Amino acid sequence: MSSKRLLAWLFVTPALLLLAAFSFWPVLYGSYLSFTDFSLMRETNWVGLDNYVALFNNEMFLTGLRNSFVFLLVVPCTQLAAILLAVLVNN
């Protein structure tokens, strides 16, 4: 490996380690915990997909999910309309 390449890896490695420590690890650990009945007061037990079944049977979650999808569709359309209107006004 050339010295320039080695130097580049020396500069990039700390950033990659920090990224792994503060981004990837919490996502992986949170994913693991989502399959358990985690509590600070008692032993953690594996429950599999029970948490997700309960989540998708919750009416409030489904309402929030629907609202999020509506927001996902409406906001870009509104932004596009605003940009087109601004271009028309500018011309």
Detail the topology: elements first, then pairings.
Blueprint: H1 3-33, H2 50-56, H3 59-90
Calculate the mean pLDDT score and round it: 95
Assembly state here?
Answer: single chain
| Total DSSP helices | 3
Q: Give the domain tally.
A: 2
Order of helices and strands: HHH
Describe the structure in your own words.
The protein is mainly α and 91 residues long. It folds into 2 domains: 1-47; 58-91. It has helices spanning 3-33, 50-56, 59-90.
Summarize the structure.
The chain folds into two domains: about 1-45; about 60-90.
What descriptive keywords fit this protein?
2 domains; 3 helices; mainly alpha; 91 residues; 0% strand
